[in-house]
Amino acid sequence: MTGTSDAQSVEVRRYFEVPRRRWRIVLLVALVGIAGFAAYAQLGSSSYEASAIVRVNPIGADPFSSGRTADQLVNTDSEAQTARSADVAERLAELLRSPDDANAVRDRMSVTASSDTASLTLTYTADTRQEARDGANAYASAFLDHREAEARGQQEELLASVEESLDAAREDLIAAEEAVANAEEGSQEAREAAADRQIADRSIQSLSTRRGDLQTMSFEPGSVLREAESASPASLTGGTTFLAGGVLASLVLALLAAFAREGLDKRVRTARDVGQAAHAPVLAEIPKSNAAAPLVDDPSGPAAEAYRVLRAQLLPALRRAGTRVIVVADEGGAARSGTAGAGLAVAIAQARHDVVLLMPGWPSGEAAGLAALDAGRPRAHGVQGYATLLPGAEEADGGEAVRPTSVPGLRAAHGDAAHALLAGEEGQALVANLAASGGYVVLDASGQLTRSEILTLAGLPGAVAIVVGQVGRSTAPELEALALSLERLGTPIAGCAVIGGRRASRSERSEPGDREDRGAPAGGAHRRVPPARTDGTVRA
Predict the structure, then answer these.
(1) How confident is the model at residue 308 (pLDDT cuts 50, 70, 90)?
(2) What is the Cα–Cα distance from 145 to 91, expressed in whole angstroms?
(3) What is the DSSP string of 373-398?
(4) What is the pLDDT of residue 456?
(5) Whole-angstrom Cα distance, residue 205 to residue 53?
(6) How many CB atoms lie within 10 A of CB 266?
(7) What is the spatial distance between Cα 320 and Cα 304, in angstroms, rounded to a whole number?
(8) What are the CA-CA distances from residue 336 to residues 12, 55, 226, 291, 339 (Å)?
(9) Digit-coded pLDDT (tens) for 93-129
(10) pTM of the model
(11) What is the CA angle 454-459-463, rounded to 5?
């Protein structure tokens, strides 16, 4: 359970490391996104809208009818259409003294009818908050003015109709009185004339009462229930919500860009990446160093200590496996602090072992990617780094290709001399002699060597490989392909060395038990050398 928890915490931490590692992309995308949203909000056509609520009173053809409530007498859908009419728009343009025509003003008007009350919400849109508030309040006034004008017109029509009926009733009354006067008393004609006079008189009284009611009745079109006191953005670009959303969206896009770039970048970033790509445990993490040769120039530094850790992890396992040939496979070239093969050879030699360092990938003058060799002067005269470990221009006694170095017990050959040695029987004899005497051969498979040449070195009898991954330089597919080729070749992989990595926590360091042999040929042709602990015991 503890191992699972540690692995999960490492995975979570790796996700948090991506924005930190890609902080330039995160910062750039976030700034560009925020600037884009801000520019759009600034340059976009911002508008504001305000609303006023009006109460609509019923105005019918017969205002004296009853039996229904006022809300039931008002058709809000019909009134909403009236509120959007051209007449109301013309009235609103007059109240606002707008230079725009009625159609332009009408485009800024909108109405929402209430479903349960006789009320309308009148909304006006403008370029500024103040214009929106003034427009909404003027909209309510224009609508009520229009309804009042309609009510006045209906009142005048009703009064005219009543006056016309009164005139007709008066004429009927005069005709009935004349008929009564001319008819013989008690006759049928007299009785009919009297009835007509009574009807005409009652009609005159009723119409007079109605005319009085019409003349004194006030036709209220409605009232403003709530004036427009504030305005809100009509579009998202006008408010802080839009800007806040823009900032959030920019951060999300920045994180997505960082993870996308991380996915496209196949370079290894941590020791865990190297171990996973090579399917092998990480034996040592060698930090960056300003010293050209850490074990020689800065023996107490962290890089030198990392090489000693690599030696302590490796030698016990090699002794148990009965092998003395180490191939340090590094396709990334030399780091600033030299090659891993040279560093490992010095570390083994400092442990009082005889070591031969062969560097066929580095011709004279550019060995390990360091400064030009100056073997004609001793180290005390200024030659620094691993340049002092390599043979000079003059041949040693006996014409041997492998020459002593300033490190006791370490001899080296590079370039064509190393190539020739490895290709002849002399190299095999050298390996056999060292194996018999307890010495080691370190094959630095880096520099100008191709993949095929690295595999040729790894195919020497008894060779054990160390896969080197350089943080920020080596790629995971290259390391995986190299490890797979070594496995198919049948060369055991003792582990990995990471150059340029930080000191990993215990949970991040690769444990041999966590690795499974992947890609090994059928029948167990490939084997791994179990790495040793620093106390000299071999890990099971």
Answers:
(1) very high
(2) 8
(3) P-TTS-GGGT--GGGGGS--SS--GG
(4) 82
(5) 42
(6) 15
(7) 25
(8) 32, 84, 78, 8, 8
(9) 888 888 878 888 888 889 988 877 888 999 998 888 8
(10) 0.53
(11) 100
Q: Nearest-CA neighbor of 471 among 444, 496, 494? A: 496
Rounded mean pLDDT of 69-83?
78
Q: Are 334 and 435 in contact (CB under 8 A)?
A: no
CA distance 276 to 287: 19
> Contact, 326 vs 477, CB < 8 A?
no
Give me the helices (H) in 183-225, please: 188-216
pLDDT in tens, 35-45: 887 777 665 55
Provide the 8-state DSSP code for 526: -
Find where tokens 């003395």 sit.
324
Tokens of 312: 């302590």
Burial 42-62 (b: 16+ CB within 10 A, else e): eeeebbbbbbbbbbbbbbeee
Sequence-distant (6+) residues with CB within 8 A of 70 are 57, 58, 118
DSSP letter (8 states) at residue 84:
T
Token pair for 237? 């670009």
Identify whether the C-beta of residue 474 lies closer than 8 Å to the C-beta of residue 264: no
Could you tell me if residue 385 is left (phi over 0), alpha (psi between -120 and 50 degrees) or otherwise beta? Answer: left
With tokens 């953005």, the residue in question is: 233
Beta strands in 127-239 (DSSP E): 222-226, 232-233
